[in-house]
Write a structure and sequence with these properties.
The chain is an alpha/beta fold. The protein has helices spanning 38-42, 67-80, 93-104, 124-137, 141-150, 155-160, 162-172, 177-188, 194-199, 217-224, 240-243, 245-257; strands spanning 2-5, 8-15, 19-24, 45-50, 86-91, 109-115, 203-209, 230-234. Helices cover 45% and strands 19% of the residues.
């Protein structure tokens, strides 16, 4: 399905019937990433998967895609589908977008799952890495994507899940340069949204991977100690939908059916 938002075509899908679940993919991904777990969810729920700005079949909207702007696009889709309340699951960057939406529209949320993601802002070091990546992208985009994607998987996972890894990489390579840079610039600008997450009235779940090099798990655990936030840790890395598909499916179903 397509809606027009500020002269930008936004692509999304709606499958199944029941209480709504909104799926938001990560950086260099698109809504196809959810295919491994989608059949389990659509048996009992209406599942709305959205291509975020500059990814998949959704067009770019300028040269900086702030998380708040992406959240506005998600809200436009949900309003078009007349969704008043839903469970949200965001993978990596998708969780940043969900948190930005939660700050604007907390009443929309039955629950929020941060999947292989965080509520924290970028460190200055991480911001510098993004800036350098944007400069490199303008000269050697394909090599940059291949190197960036390789870092999301352990060497073992790249062998064990070779076909899924290659398919995910092929999708990443379809991301336009403008979409890449705009998302990187937007992620650099996001604030810490711990209080937004903690103050949501619905369920709060963090799913982490033990081998995930992008997330500071120890810091997250220390920060959420004593809160209502549930923390679940899998054996592998950043790409739980590939590396821990069975465990992810089980925990997501538990999350949306409570």
């Amino acid at each position: 399905m397509i809606i027009n938002y500020k002269n930008c075509q936004v692509h999304y899908t709606v499958e199944g019937e029941g209480s709504p679940v909104v799926l938001l993919h990560g950086f260099l991904e698109n809504l196809k990433m959810w295919q491994p777990i989608l059949p389990a969810l659509t048996k009992t729920h209406q599942v709305i998967s959205i291509d975020l700005l500059g990814h998949g079949e959704t067009e770019c909207l300028g040269y900086v895609h702030r998380m708040e702007t992406m959240a506005d696009v998600v809200l436009a889709v949900l309003q078009h589908e007349q969704v008043e309340k839903a469970h949200f699951i965001g993978h990596s960057m998708g969780a940043y977008v969900a948190l930005a939406l939660a700050e604007q529209q907390p009443e929309l949320f039955k629950g929020l799952c941060l999947m292989n993601s965080t509520f924290e802002a970028d460190t200055p070091e991480r911001q510098q890495i993004r800036t350098r990546a944007c400069k490199m992208a303008q000269h050697n985009y394909q090599t940059l994507i291949e190197l960036s994607f390789a870092n999301l998987f352990s060497e073992e996972s790249k062998t064990t899940y070779k076909e899924a890894y290659q398919n995910a990489l092929n999708e990443a390579l379809q991301t336009p340069l403008q979409g890449y840079i705009a998302a990187q610039e937007g992620m650099k600008l996001r604030p810490n949204r711990l209080e937004v997450f903690k103050n949501l009235e619905g369920q709060q779940l963090i799913i982490a991977g033990k081998k995930d090099q992008l997330i500071n798990r120890e810091q997250i655990l220390k920060t959420i100690e004593g809160s209502r936030i549930t923390y679940v840790e899998f054996s592998e890395g950043h790409m739980s939908y590939i590396e821990n598909k069975k465990e992810l499916t089980y925990n997501v179903l538990q999350f949306i059916e409570k």
